[in-house]
Amino acid sequence: MARVSFSALIEEIVGKLAGSVFQDSYGGMQIRTRVSPRNPQTNYQQLRRGEFGYISALWRTLTSVQRQTFIDAASTPPAALNLFIQSNVNLSLIEESIIDTYVPSSDPGSMDIEFTQADTTALKIKATGGTTVVPAGTKLLVQVTYLKLPTKIFTNPSQYSPVISFNEGTDLSAPTDILTEWQSRYGIMKADMRLCLKANLIDKSNGLRGADSVNCTNTEDMPSYYFPLFAVVNTADNVGTGNNSLNQITIPANTLIADGDKLRIRIQGKTSSTASTSNTGVEFNGTFHYYTATTALRFWGYDIEIVRTSSTTAEASILIVTSSSDSQAVNDAYSGLDFTSGITVGFAGLAIDGSNKIQCYSITADYIKKP
Fold first, then answer.
1. CATH 3.10.50 holds for 228-368
2. Beta partners for residue 328, in sequence order
């Protein structure tokens, strides 16, 4: 930045000249390079800007009664205008009709969405939390970023753009490919890059937006090759005779989507008895398989690996380690399954008499995708 000294011929220069900008400052006149901010003027940007301006202008057309519904919800007129704009922008993003009267509702909550595949052939997302179906009265808005170098992070909300929305009742427990929608927004997908998604539930009646669910990944390097499914502690126990299902976990439909995909399950517990025999074992889709017998106080652990071999069959290797000499390893084959409908895996106990107690106190499950 240059310093300017004036003479009797030129007393002042202010404004733009060619590639420079002349301005007065605390230290005197200064010159800086003229910089024009980047404004790509894409069709998407023009649409969003026009939509925002249109919604803002609609506020002046509302009746006093209609405006009051927004003021009642937001407390002040300026906040009411912001609520009107935010609500209708959200409704516009999910392709719902805009509103002129605000009816309050409860928070729509959140829905955890993660990438399960990101490469040049597919961009798949999946619901991974407790909510896998879009709740009634809402739509799920999914916004995705453009590609960046893997070292970059996405912190600016403007870097996320709407790609697709899912209506109430949509089941996202199975991976859903949104590559076509992403490419229509950003162009060709490339390998070895980074992108993020942000998912929100939006109330269709008033545009209220729920909490963000954010997930990031690098293309060709997916976190879904290994991720936890369940972790529970202090589960049920059994006192008395007969076999009892002590705990079950449900593996969502289409979790094992390819032959070679695996489930890794770990179960820990104990058997307390001084005189009688207890059997413990694995329950797979309602069928019990008993593997160990104990006759005294035992602490034990199961390490189970279930491998999909077809859409209806699986192989399981089970390692049972106890605090005594009755540890063992077994292999089983399972048939008649349907991985598209989900499966249940659980832990069962068979107590021989009423003095026996079998307790399962922790169970975890991880998904391991075939490399």
1. no
2. 320
For the chain, give every domain's residue range. 2-33, 43-93, 113-221, 228-368
Between 221 and 55, name the one with better pLDDT.
55
Residue 243: name the closest of 187, 194, 290, 205 by CA. 290
Question: Distance of alpha carbon 83 from its chain centroid, rounded?
Answer: 27
Q: What would you report as the CA-atom Rg of the chain, rounded to the nearest whole angstrom?
A: 30
Domain 113-221: CATH superfamily, name plus number? Immunoglobulins (2.60.40.10)
At 186 the three-state DSSP class reads: helix
How many residues would you count in the chain? 371
Look at residue 349 and tell me whether its pLDDT is greater than 90: no
Please write the tens of the pLDDT for every residue from 151-187. 777 777 888 999 999 999 999 998 999 999 999 888 8
Structure tokens at 343: 């499966």
Q: Report whether pLDDT(201) > 80.
A: yes
* pLDDT band for position 281 (cuts 50, 70, 90): confident
| Dihedral angle, C-alpha 251, 287, 258, 125, nearest 10 ° | -10
Instruction: Look up the pTM and report it.
Output: 0.53
Residue of 125, 217, 206, 115 whose CA lies nearest to 171: 125
Q: Which of 200, 213, 190 has the alpha carbon at shortest distance from 120?
A: 190
Q: Which of 199-208, 230-239, 361-370 has the highest mean pLDDT?
A: 199-208
The residues, ordered by sequence, that sit 6+ positions from 319 with a Cβ below 8 Å of its Cβ are: 302, 303, 304, 327, 329
Cα 84 from Cα 134, distance rounded (Å): 25
3-state secondary structure of 74: helix
- Joined together, the tokens standing for residue 167 give 């209506």
Confidence (pLDDT) at 20: 74
| Three-class SS state of 55 | helix
